[in-house]
Structure formats: structure tokens, C-alpha cells
From TrEMBL:
The chain crosses the membrane at residues 20-38, 58-75, 87-105, 111-132, 144-166, 172-194, 223-242, 248-276, 288-307, 313-334, 354-374, 380-399. The keyword Transmembrane helix applies. It is found in: Cell inner membrane; Cell membrane. Its main location: membrane. The keyword Metal-binding does not apply. Residues 19-402 form the Major facilitator superfamily (MFS) profile domain. Keywords: Cell inner membrane, Cell membrane, Membrane, Transmembrane, Transmembrane helix, Transport. Belongs to the major facilitator superfamily. Bcr/CmlA family. InterPro entries: Efflux_drug-R_Bcr/CmlA (IPR004812), MFS (IPR011701), MFS_dom (IPR020846), MFS_trans_sf (IPR036259). It comes from the Bacteria. This is Bcr/CflA family efflux transporter. It is a multi-pass membrane protein.
């Protein structure tokens, strides 16, 4: 059993609003690492001699794979040594790699540093979720994670525009200088204001047997495992869109410098959904909201796939259908993660690492396959979204014993 949480002691010198903002900024490291460079992918490829436009997508995939694999290490480390030290170490590695990329001579070298940069960023993903779980549980955790995700989603709204401005006044190297400065700006309040949230009684030895036991606890919990798998496939669709967004919005629809504005609209729908969830989850529960959103996501994806198979989609229709899917995704993400973490508070760091690894690596592989299937139309993306919605529904049904919308307890 997880013992009652003293929110006041855990938050220490931070107000609740400041705590949410700091957690959101930590989570946003990964969004800014991807979205700010989307307007510069073409120039990066041209500068480093990349002939195939689909190969430019590896700049995103390399980062995601580093992010995914390293989470397996940062979780047990944070359960043993606390949350702050691994978090600050990861931020330092992330920032150093960003600066190193400024001087890379080849595309291969860039990909290597992007992978290692993802390794450093893994600390922000694992430790942030662990800190929130240390301080909150149940519907409260879902509410806080929704607010964190809402602020986090503001970054994809503004990051492509920042990248576009950088590309107008400078070259692509400056993007990575800005990323390094962002990491430094976040590290300062983490070092000075964030209190250690891991209760000393919950520290776990950093040994192979203890780590494997933590993994066993996570992987044998049906709710945790299958909500994680559902999130993984849905993230695969999101990563598939991010991988091919520049090719779709610029290549197919010819948006040019307006690409960041339309991309921001999609991210804005997820931010709006996260805010909506934060206002409604205490009243209706995580399952009612997320299960309804999953069904809505499937229906929107089915309509999108059917129309795209019938012929080229006008830009307005593509925006409507993609926005509908993104809104539903925003209602699911925080709730699915909260339900996966809820029974695992006693091994929160290890749990966050296993869940994060599965979601990121699974999503990255699926997203890379969807991105590489780009054929000059939106059909591969639409087919991917619908297929993944079917898998997600199957995983949720397994997690819930075949019954949707049924709360397990007052916190569900």
C-alpha cells in the first residue's frame, strides 16, 4: 500500500501552480527537441548531403530511440538515488549533446549525438512522471497530469514557429543552441527549488535482482501493462504524423511558411483536450472520459481512412479529421498513463521507466514505419491511425476484463 501523501511537504517551496509549470517544462523538453526543428529538416538534410527526403525523418527517430531505451536505466536509478540527481544529470547530458550537434561534420555523427541527447532526455520523462506520482495519486494524479500535458502541448504550438523564425534569420545550427539554452533554463529551478520527493522508505537497492523484481511487478500487472500497450500504439500514430508532417503540410498542401501555424492548430487541440480533461476527470472519472475518447478516435480515423482511400483530401477536410483525432488523443493520454501508474506507486521510478520505455520504443518503431510509408498522399497515415485505434481498443478491453466505462473504485 502507498502511504498517505503530505502534499505540502512534498511541494516544499513550490506552489501547486509552480510545481505544475516546472513538471510541464521538464516534459516539454521532448516536444521542443522534435518540433522546433521540423521547419529546418530540409536544410539540415541539404547541408549534410541527405538525398532521400524520407531519411531526414531519422533525426527524429534517433532521438526517440535514445529516449526510449535509456528510460530503463533512469527509473531504477531514481528509485535508488532519489529524483533530483538523475534528473540534473540527464539535463546536463542533453544540453552538452545539443551544443555538440552544432559542430557535427556528417549526418551520421548528427544521428549519434541525437541518440545520446535522447538518452539524457529520458531522465525528464521518467523522473517527471515519478515525481508527480510521489506527490499525487488516483484522479488527482490524472488532473495534475492533464494540466502538465496542457502546458506541455503549448510547446508544439509555438516550437515550429520559433524554428521557422530561426531559419529566417539564421541557419539550422542555431536551433540546437536554443535547445541547449532551454535545458539550462529548466535546470536552474530544478536545482534551486525542487525538493526531493522520494520518501526514503521507498528507496530500492540498485541491484540486478531488485531491478528485475521491479520489472516483474510492472509487467505482471494487467492494468499497467495493457494501458501501456494501448498508449504505445496511439503514440505510434502521433509519431507517424510528426515524422511526415513537413512532407504532408508543405509537400502535399504547399503551406510553406504557414506550416507552423497549421501544425500548431493540431497541438492546440491536444492542449485543449488536456485542459478539458483536467476540469472533468474529478467529476466523471478517468475511464468514462478516456474510453469515450478512444471510441471517438476510432470513428474519426475510420472516416479519415475511408475518405482518403476514395481520393485526395482537400486541406480543410484533412485539418478537420486530424484535429478530431488529436483532440481525442489528448483526452486519452493523461488518463491512460495515470491508470497504468496508479497501482505501482511503491515502485514508481521503475514503473515509469518500464512504461516509458515500452511507449516510446513501441511508438517510435510504429511511427517510423508509418513515416517511411509516406508515398505523397495522406493515405498511409490515415490507415495507420485507424489500424492503431483497433489495437488500442483491444488492449483496453483486455485491461478492463472486456468491459468499458466501469470505474474500479472512487479514484477511477
Amino acid at each position: 500500500m502507498t502511504k498517505p501523501i503530505d502534499h505540502t511537504a512534498a511541494l516544499s517551496g513550490l506552489s501547486k501552480t509552480q510545481f505544475i509549470a516546472l513538471m510541464a517544462m521538464l516534459m516539454s523538453i521532448n516536444a521542443i527537441s522534435i518540433d522546433i526543428m521540423l521547419p529546418g529538416l530540409q536544410e539540415i538534410g541539404a547541408s549534410l548531403g541527405v538525398a532521400d527526403e524520407n531519411d531526414r525523418q531519422y533525426i527524429i527517430s534517433a532521438y526517440l530511440f535514445g529516449l526510449g531505451f535509456a528510460q530503463l536505466g533512469f527509473g531504477p536509478l531514481s528509485d535508488r538515488f532519489g529524483r533530483k540527481a538523475p534528473l540534473l544529470g540527464g539535463l546536463a547530458l542533453y544540453g552538452v549533446c545539443a551544443l555538440a550537434i552544432v559542430f557535427v561534420p556528417t549526418f551520421t555523427t548528427l544521428l549519434i549525438f541525437r541518440f545520446v541527447q535522447g538518452v539524457g532526455a529520458a531522465a525528464t520523462r521518467v523522473v517527471t512522471v515519478s515525481i508527480v506520482r510521489d506527490v499525487y495519486g488516483g484522479r488527482q494524479m490524472a488532473e495534475i497530469m492533464s494540466l502538465v500535458m496542457m502546458v506541455f502541448m503549448i510547446v508544439p504550438v509555438v516550437a515550429p514557429s520559433i524554428g521557422q523564425v530561426i531559419m529566417i534569420f539564421a541557419e539550422w545550427h542555431m536551433i540546437f543552441v536554443v535547445i541547449a539554452l532551454f535545458a539550462l533554463a529548466i535546470s536552474i529551478p530544478v536545482a534551486l527549488s525542487l525538493r526531493e520527493t522520494l520518501d526514503p522508505a521507498y528507496r530500492r537497492a540498485f541491484t540486478a535482482s531488485v531491478i528485475l523484481e521491479g520489472f516483474r511487478i510492472v509487467l505482471t500487472n494487467r492494468l499497467a501493462l495493457f494501458y501501456t500497450l494501448a498508449t504505445s500504439v496511439l503514440l505510434g500514430g502521433l509519431f507517424g504524423f510528426v515524422n511526415s508532417a513537413q512532407q504532408i503540410l508543405v509537400g502535399i498542401y504547399g503551406l510553406g511558411i504557414w506550416f507552423p501555424a497549421v501544425f500548431a492548430a493540431f497541438a492546440g487541440m491536444m492542449a485543449l483536450a488536456s485542459f478539458t480533461n483536467s476540469r472533468l476527470v474529478q467529476r466523471f472519472g478517468m475511464r468514462a472520459l478516456s474510453h469515450a475518447a478512444l471510441l471517438g478516435y476510432g470513428l474519426a480515423s475510420l472516416a479519415w481512412m475511408s475518405l482518403s482511400l476514395a481520393g485526395p483530401l482537400p486541406l480543410a477536410l484533412f485539418v478537420v479529421l486530424q484535429s478530431a483525432a488529436m483532440f481525442q488523443f489528448g483526452l486519452m493520454a493523461a488518463n491512460f498513463n495515470a491508470m497504468a501508474m496508479e497501482p505501482l506507486g511503491h515502485v514508481a521510478g521503475t514503473a515509469s521507466s518500464v512504461l516509458g520505455f515500452t511507449q516510446t520504443i513501441g511508438g517510435a518503431f510504429i511511427g517510423a514505419m508509418i513515416g517511411q510509408a509516406f508515398d505523397g498522399t495522406v493515405t498511409p497515415l490515415a490507415v495507420g491511425f485507424f489500424t492503431l485505434s483497433v489495437f488500442a481498443l483491444a488492449f483496453v478491453l483486455i485491461a478492463e476484463g472486456g468491459k468499458l466505462f466501469r470505474p474500479h473504485n472512487p479514484a477511477g
